[in-house]
Amino acid sequence: MAASPEAVSGAVSDTFKESAYDPLYDPLVSKTGQGQAYAPTYWVGTAGPAPQDDGPIRADCDVDVAIIGSGFTGLATALNLAQEHGVRAVVLEANHTAWGCTSRNGGQGQNASGRLYRSQWIQRWGLETAKRLDAEIRGGFEYWKSMVAGIDCDAQPGGHLYTAHRAKKMAFLENEARVMKEVFGYDTRMLSRAELHEHYVRDMEAAGALLEPDGVGVHPLKLAFGYIRKARALGVKIHPASPVLGWETINGVHHLRTPGGVVRARRVGVATGGYTPQGLHPSLSNKIMPILSNSMVTRPLTAQEREEAGLKTTTFITDTRTLRFYYRLLPDGSMQIGSRSSVTGSDARNPRHLQLLKDGLYRKFPRLRDIPIAYSWWGWVDVSHDMMPRIAQPDPTQQIYYAFGYGGNGVSFSSHAGRRLAERIVGKGGKHWDLPIYNSPLPGHLFAPFRRLGQAMFYKYYYLRDEIF
Ligand SMILES: Cc1cc2nc3c(=O)[nH]c(=O)nc-3n(C[C@H](O)[C@H](O)[C@H](O)COP(=O)(O)OP(=O)(O)OC[C@H]3O[C@@H](n4cnc5c(N)ncnc54)[C@H](O)[C@@H]3O)c2cc1C
Question: pLDDT for 380-392, tens place per residue?
Answer without folding.
Answer: 999 999 999 999 9
